[in-house]
């Protein structure tokens, strides 16, 4: 397939129009990508009993799914083919993975079907949706991202009670069949992702075809030149050019020069640390409620409470982040959100009953929504829209390791101590540490950027007098050159006076 026009840079985002339809499609695809790995945790207790597995073993299902969802392949495919076909393919893979999971007979098969195949389908939904919003919006981008990210809590609020209802009526196998059919709606969402500049793409292909015809006429001249002695030099040049082309192709999909970007490295380290404790609490929230004796529907309702608060928090955070007071220093706001999230987990063990878990779910939903609403906006703020696709790919490569290990480490702590509180304490401490690191390093980054900007202005001021002096000399010479013929009589008089003066001096 030829590359779509939304895979490359465009003239200017429209900031509206069809972009709001794209936001609606992103609302659906991002909602499933984020909410499905959390909502499926409703079945874990029953699947654990069915296959007679431990907490750490069942946690690998979510870990593999989340790690695959945050893999780098999606951003590479978007650069090559565009957002629309990638999201449609992702919807198909989601449906195939869940339908196949309904016929699994071992936990390993669940790892493959639910974890890998469905996770890959969700990955092909998540990143293209975020990337295409960046192509359609600039000034209203935080608001658009906030609205699209609100799809996650809306879907989670719906999926949590729906999954419990499906399980009670059809069992986990029948539920997986129905969920596979529901996930096919991602294909409809992907069909809404219209390329932003399709007309330019057709003009480019037409000009390329015309260029090929011109090149065919010059082939005979090139054949004659190939017989010359300079052919050996040309071959060495072409080899070097091929190596450069390979490097350019790699950099086109994954721009490794971003590792020289100070702000990107700070974001990368902080997020890798954050994801070590980001998903485990939400994966084990419903099983924890069932463990302490809360009924199944009330345990599922905790996820709905979290989702409802998250639903309000994401667009509200987008509006606040877009304000003139917060947007210039949005990295500080992001750091605070991560630390706030970790603080909620540290306080969770104090919630002994259902009322305490409801309060925890409210604050957790608020903190979770704040982090998710700014997760990609802060990255785009650092690297810009043109390098955002490559930045997402590189970040997801590094993040998938900690995403993969987070829930199993939490499950191992539960298996070892027989208590959920150590899992929540571990996740909270890691996230508070990540938020503190990002706050300090972003302060350092802002200070360094201010110093670099000050030095740049100082250099411009130092070179400005030299430029003005040179320009003055050039203007003076031009004026005298232009006025030379008119001032010729005066020059002759001056030369005559000099000769007379010299004559008297000689006498």
TrEMBL record:
Coiled coil: none annotated. Its main location: membrane. Keywords: Cell membrane, Membrane, Symport, Transmembrane, Transmembrane helix, Transport. The chain crosses the membrane at residues 18-37, 58-77, 89-122, 143-162, 174-193, 264-285, 297-313, 333-352, 358-376, 388-410, 422-446. It is a multi-pass membrane protein. Belongs to the major facilitator superfamily. Monocarboxylate porter (TC 2.A.1.13) family. This is Major facilitator superfamily (MFS) profile domain-containing protein. It comes from Gallus gallus. The gene is LOC416086.
């Amino acid at each position: 397939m030829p590359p779509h026009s939304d895979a490359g840079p465009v003239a200017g985002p429209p900031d509206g129009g069809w972009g709001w339809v794209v936001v609606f499609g992103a609302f659906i695809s991002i909602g499933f990508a984020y909410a499905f790995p959390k909502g499926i945790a409703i079945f874990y207790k029953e699947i654990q009993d069915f296959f007679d597995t431990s907490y750490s073993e069942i946690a690998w299902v979510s870990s593999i799914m989340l790690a695959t969802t945050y893999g780098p392949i999606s951003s590479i495919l978007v650069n090559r083919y565009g957002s629309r076909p990638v999201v449609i393919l992702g919807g198909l893979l989601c449906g195939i993975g869940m339908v196949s999971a309904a016929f699994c007979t071992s936990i390993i098969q669940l790892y493959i079907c639910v974890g890998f195949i469905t996770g890959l389908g969700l990955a092909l939904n998540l990143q293209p949706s975020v990337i295409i919003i960046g192509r359609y919006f600039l000034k209203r981008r935080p608001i658009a991202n906030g609205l699209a990210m609100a799809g996650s809590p809306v879907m989670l609020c719906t999926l949590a009670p729906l999954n419990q209802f499906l399980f009670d009526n059809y069992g986990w196998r029948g539920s997986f069949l129905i969920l596979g059919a529901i996930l096919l709606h991602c294909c409809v969402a992907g069909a809404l992702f219209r390329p932003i500049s399709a007309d330019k793409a057709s003009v480019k292909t037409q000009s390329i075809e015309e260029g090929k015809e011109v090149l065919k006429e010059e082939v005979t001249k090139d054949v004659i030149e190939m017989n010359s002695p300079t052919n050996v030099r040309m071959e060495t040049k072409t080899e070097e050019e091929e190596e450069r082309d390979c490097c350019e192709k790699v950099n086109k999909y994954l721009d490794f020069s971003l590792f020289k970007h100070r702000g990107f490295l700070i974001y990368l380290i902080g997020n890798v640390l954050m994801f070590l404790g980001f998903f485990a609490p939400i994966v084990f929230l419903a099983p924890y409620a069932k463990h302490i004796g809360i009924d199944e529907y009330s345990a599922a309702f905790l996820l709905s409470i979290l989702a409802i608060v998250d639903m309000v928090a994401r667009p509200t955070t987008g509006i606040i982040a877009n304000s003139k007071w917060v947007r210039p220093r949005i990295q500080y706001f992001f750091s605070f959100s991560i630390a706030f999230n970790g603080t909620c987990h540290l306080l969770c063990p104090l919630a002994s009953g259902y009322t305490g878990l409801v309060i925890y779910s409210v604050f957790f939903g608020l903190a979770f929504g704040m982090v998710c609403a700014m997760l990609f906006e802060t990255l785009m703020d650092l690297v810009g829209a043109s390098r955002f696709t490559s930045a997402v790919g590189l970040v997801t490569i590094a993040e998938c390791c900690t995403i993969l290990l987070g829930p199993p480490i939490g499950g191992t702590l539960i298996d070892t101590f027989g208590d959920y509180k150590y899992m929540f304490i571990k996740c909270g401490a890691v996230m508070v540490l990540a938020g503190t690191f990002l706050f300090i390093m972003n302060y350092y980054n802002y200070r360094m950027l201010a110093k670099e900007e000050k030095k740049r202005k100082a250099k411009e001021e130092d070179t400005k007098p030299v430029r003005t002096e040179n320009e003055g000399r050039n203007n003076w010479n031009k004026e005298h050159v232009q006025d030379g013929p008119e001032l010729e009589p005066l020059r002759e008089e001056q030369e005559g006076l000099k000769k007379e003066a010299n004559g008297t001096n000689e006498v």
